[in-house]
Amino acid sequence: MAVATDELALHHITVRFGGLTALDDVSLRVAPGKVVGVIGPNGAGKTTLFNVICGFVPPTEGTLTLDGRDWRPRPHHLSRLGIARTLQGVGQFAGMTVLENVMVGVRGRRAEAEALAALDRCGVAKYAATYPGALPYAIRKRIELARALASKPRVLMLDEPAGGLDTDEIRWLGDLIKEIGTTVLLVEHHMDLVMSVCDEILVLDFGKPIALGTPAEISTNERVTEAYLGTPA
Ligand SMILES: Nc1ncnc2c1ncn2[C@@H]1O[C@H](COP(=O)(O)OP(=O)(O)OP(=O)(O)O)[C@@H](O)[C@H]1O
């Protein structure tokens, strides 16, 4: 029987910043189409893990593979490889319209149509001709998501997409993530969202992987409870 290849995998990744170990022997295999969450207390290494995958931070030790082949990520190759990332904030160019902002990540003659379709999918097409600066934060978060979706990525990396959103917006976001059908890596503090959308969750604590499993397994894991509450479960 053929063994499915992991789309993206980290193998024993360690990152040190001087004397600080931000990631300590982290391995993760992400299968195509799965939604994989990365959680952990502040400073656990979640953003560093994203930065390793994006090529912003080179691992001190360990390797990555893409479709089973050795892979050395470079930020300027991500788009060509079909990997898109949203930012924690809303990071849009103030001097460009919403549509122009979303078109930044899309190439080809159909760029405008793809950008409009992504805005529509995120429920914000009516703001296409608006400048983003004056728009409410939740709308700008949706535009940021549309920007990432417009390039039709095969791997979508979401960095705290629920930050600053209210309950209704988070519910909308959860439905969207479940419908996307693409591989998703999700760094998020909002536990209800993580538990409701993820197939698998990696838990980091001070850079160490302390648990990896389904939401049901993670929610009953004593080491996870201890890391979050600071006391034995
Ligand atoms: N470029 C850097 N230089 C030095 N230390 C860094 C650098 N980037 C991150 N760190 C440190 O590495 C550790 C992990 O940081 P990281 O931002 O990855 O954590 P995080 O889990 O994303 O935290 P948060 O939930 O607060 O965003 C922290 O102690 C942080 O201060």
From TrEMBL:
Keywords attached to this entry: ATP-binding, Nucleotide-binding, Transport
Organism of origin is: Actinoplanes missouriensis (strain ATCC 14538 / DSM 43046 / CBS 188.64 / JCM 3121 / NBRC 102363 / NCIMB 12654 / NRRL B-3342 / UNCC 431)
**GO annotation, biological process:** D-alanine transmembrane transport; L-alanine transport; L-isoleucine import across plasma membrane; L-valine import across plasma membrane
ABC transporter domain boundaries: 8-231
Gene Ontology molecular function: ATP binding; ATP hydrolysis activity; L-isoleucine transmembrane transporter activity; L-phenylalanine transmembrane transporter activity; L-valine transmembrane transporter activity
Q: Per its UniProt record, what InterPro entries does this chain match?
A: AAA+_ATPase, ABC_AA/LPS_Transport, ABC_transporter-like_ATP-bd, BCA_ABC_TP_C, P-loop_NTPase
Name it. Answer: Putative ABC transporter ATP-binding protein
Q: Does the keyword Transmembrane helix apply?
A: no
Organism domain of life: Bacteria
According to the UniProt record, one GO cellular component term is: plasma membrane
